[in-house]
Each structure stands twice: as structure tokens, then as C-alpha cells.
Design goal:
2 copies of one chain form a homodimer. The first copy, chain A, contains 9 helices and no strands. By secondary structure, chain A is mostly helical. The structure holds a DNA duplex.
DNA sequence: CCTTAAATGGACATCGTGTCCGCTTATTCG
DNA sequence: CGAATAAGCGGACACGATGTCCATTTAAGG
């Protein structure tokens, strides 16, 4: 395992810092490899060396923020972490994701660039989490429901709701209501 | 109001027919104006004369199919049309949309090309419908919930579920479970 | 220092977009 | 019926983004 060369490390940092600014400054879906290269003062080839496309750069930036939430889900205090009933944990997850989208919606949006939402980034992790909650709640055929329940967290959807003038609280309220579907009730 | 010239009408038909085949033949998100022009035996300028982009062509093709469902919602027999309780109507709507996505998923996918899902096509219609059901069910703050409930119908989501091996029935099952959120229950 | 391989960055080829305008063809009117 | 007129057509063009390639630069180690 060779060390990363000093100039390489420096450039990696420059790129990520510059990319964060670029994503914040303009429509994240319109950001181009050139934009980031220019902003970072780096050639395009250098970018491609590490990241295959713009979405990957956004993922790299987002990872850091998502990791915190992921730890909370796995081992944090209830209701986010283990210990609370599934419905409450799902609601807490929704709330936390809404906060994350509110804070880093630009990056999340950039993540969707190639339409690879399901392969790239943390989608698999969120899905596994929801799936385990559904199983714990003894929901029949939980596989399809997991994707269904994650759909409203698509960055596009969240952004659209906020752009419409819906407050963060209102969006969270809607998601919380959704979370009640995991409560088993008389059928 | 001038009549459409005969050759123009002929070309419109040629274009739509060719476009339908092209969308069916390859990844609808990768279809280009050129592809359609070539397939229709028409110049690109002719395409741009009527349709500003690929998504619009897909919308034109999809409209026809969506119109039937729209009529059903407004004036058809229950539970799709008026008369049934909101939860049942929502479930019926979900089922019908799933069938529509199953039959014309390729077009629906092409509709999302520019990331304009919320402005283009029938999204506004579906939203208005769901909103009215939520109001009828006396759900508080229904605006945010409307978008939330429509999110799982995003063509990308449906396609992903089906591609994973989930049967149409399973997907419908998940959606039906979702529909139960409009049932008022003890809080 | 000097060697060596990693790292860089810009040139290149390719593709898709959207516009523009000279040519063609349907329609209308004398 | 044949010319005038305007609608319709389609390819050429300029532009912008992508991803690759390789000559040059630069760090790291002896």
C-alpha cells in the first residue's frame, strides 16, 4: 500500500473544496467537470483520474455527512437507533433525512445527475435500514415497500416541495404520516 | 385558425409512430432528437418545429394513454371515480398508475429526461387528484403529503422495482399499503 | 543530484443540442 | 391550369460537454 503523493493529496483537497462551492453556487444539476476543474485550478484529466463523473464528486462530498446519520441508525440512541418501535424509528429516520436534504440538498441533487440514484451513493444503505424496520414490524412482502417508502426522499422531490413554498416542518409532517404505514393494524 | 398543411400532418404522424418505436427499442433516456429524426426519415429542424425536446415527444405519446385514466378518475365508476371512500380511491389510482407504468414505462421514463418531472406532463393533474382525496379525508396539511404520495410513482422508481425482480403484484401491494395513510385513525 | 514512476493538464475526437436559412411543396387565386 | 405566396422542411453550423490520451512536470528515494 503506497502512500498518496503529496501533490496528489493537495489536489484532492483543492478539488473537493472547490466542488463544494461550485455545487452551492449554481444549479447542481448543471455543474460540469470543467466548472469544477476551473474552480479548483486543475486540469480536467486530473479530475477524471479520481472521479468518473460529476455525480461521484458529489457523492464524495455527501458521504461525510451521511456517515454520521448512518452511525446514528446503527448504534445511536432511540428513536433513531435501535430500541424504539419500528414506526417511531422510521419517523425519526425521515426527519433526519429531511434535515440532511435541507442542509445538503445541492449535493444530493448533483448525485442524481446520470439518473443513477439507485446504484450510486448510500441508497443501498437506506434501503437496507428501512427493510430491516419493515421486517421487524412483520410487514408482509417488505421488499417492494422499502423502495416505495424511500421514493419521497428523492432529492428532486424534496427540492420541489421546498420550492413550492412548503416549509420544512410541513414536509416532515407528511413524511411522519407516511411512517405510520408500518404500524400493524386490523385488516 | 388555419388548417394544418397536409404534408405537415403526414410528418407529425410519421414522427410519432417512429418515436414510439425508438423509445421501445432502446433505453428511453438515451434517445436523441437525431434518433427520432432518422427513424422518421425527417430532418432535425422539422422535429424542433413542433417539439422543443425529446421529453415533449414522449409526453405527446403518453398523453393519449393518460387521458383515459384521467377520465376514469373524474367521472368513471368507483372505486377509481367518485363515490368510494378516499382510501379506496387512492388505492385504485395507485393500481391504475402501476398498470400504466407497466404498459408504457418506456415513455414515462423518456418523460423525465430533462429532470422536469414536475412541470411537464400530467404531474399537476395527478397531484390535484390526490390532493382532493386528501382533503376529502380531512387530512391536515395535505399539500406536502400529495407530493410525498406521488413520489413512489416516479417512473424511475417503478422501473427500478421491476428490474430488481419484484413482480407487478408486489409493487401494487406496496402501493396499496401506502394508500392506507389516508385512513383517519386514533392519534 | 539523478532516476523513476506517479501525477498532471490540455489537446483531441466525438456526440448531442438548438438555431438559422435557402430550398421545396402545398395551397390559393387570377 | 399555372403562377404567386407562404407554410413547411432539412441539413449545415456554432457551441458546449464528454471522456481519452500522452507529452511534460514533479515528488520521492537512493
Amino acid at each position: 500500500m503506497k502512500e498518496e503523493r503529496a501533490d496528489a493529496a493537495r489536489n484532492r483537497a483543492k478539488v473537493l473544496a472547490a466542488a463544494a462551492e461550485v455545487f452551492a453556487a449554481k444549479d447542481p444539476r448543471a455543474v460540469t467537470m470543467d466548472d469544477i476543474a476551473k474552480a479548483a485550478g486543475v486540469g480536467r484529466g486530473t479530475l477524471y483520474r479520481r472521479y468518473p463523473d460529476v455525480a461521484s464528486i458529489a457523492v464524495a462530498l455527501l458521504d461525510e455527512h451521511e456517515a454520521a446519520l448512518q452511525r446514528g441508525l446503527l448504534a445511536g440512541p432511540p428513536p433513531l437507533g435501535p430500541g424504539a418501535p419500528p414506526a417511531e424509528r422510521l419517523a425519526a429516520f425521515y426527519t433526519a433525512m429531511a434535515d440532511l436534504l435541507e442542509a445538503h440538498g445541492d449535493l444530493a441533487l448533483a448525485t442524481e445527475i446520470g439518473g443513477r440514484r439507485f446504484e450510486i451513493g448510500a441508497y443501498g444503505f437506506w434501503r437496507a435500514h428501512v427493510l430491516s424496520l419493515l421486517r421487524e414490524a412483520r410487514i408482509p412482502a417488505p421488499e417492494a415497500l422499502a423502495d416505495t417508502l424511500l421514493a419521497p426522499l428523492a432529492p428532486e422531490v424534496f427540492k420541489h416541495q421546498r420550492a413550492q413554498g412548503l416549509s420544512l416542518a410541513k414536509v416532515k409532517g407528511a413524511l411522519s404520516r407516511l411512517a405510520t404505514v408500518v404500524e400493524n393494524r386490523p385488516g
